[in-house]
Write a structure and sequence with these properties.
Radius of gyration: 14 Å
Strand content: over 45%
Largest sheet: 4 strands, antiparallel
Distance between the termini: 21 Å
Order of helices and strands: EEEEEEEEE
Oligomer: single chain
Strand order of the largest sheet: 1-2-7-5
Helix content: under 10%
Number of helices: 0
Length: 93
């Protein structure tokens, strides 16, 4: 199976402020294909986590050959939940 993207999170967990219950996680997404590609960021909830609690800023974008992008994901919840943020190949533009 081909690896299109390398993803690095700035942190593996996050505590949200009690007064706002919202936060942001930043990921570095690196195009590892060697070609210009378009990719989509997704939220994949685990257990009782709801996908509607999360938003990815500009989830679909073009990644330059071997380039990296900072991708921000915002979330809003009041309990401990788990999820993953995969990036999938959409096309070669």
């Amino acid at each position: 199976m081909a690896t299109w993207f390398g993803i690095t999170a700035t942190a593996t967990d996050q505590t949200l402020p009690a007064d706002s219950r919202s936060g942001q996680q930043v990921y570095t997404v690196t195009n590892e294909s060697g070609a210009v590609i378009r990719g989509d960021g997704l939220i994949v909830p685990d257990g009782e986590t709801k996908v509607e609690w999360f938003t990815i800023a500009q989830p679909s974008r073009v990644y330059s050959a071997d380039g990296s992008e900072q991708v921000a994901e915002s979330n809003e919840t009041n309990n401990e939940y788990t999820y993953t943020v995969p990036f999938v190949l959409q096309s070669f533009p």
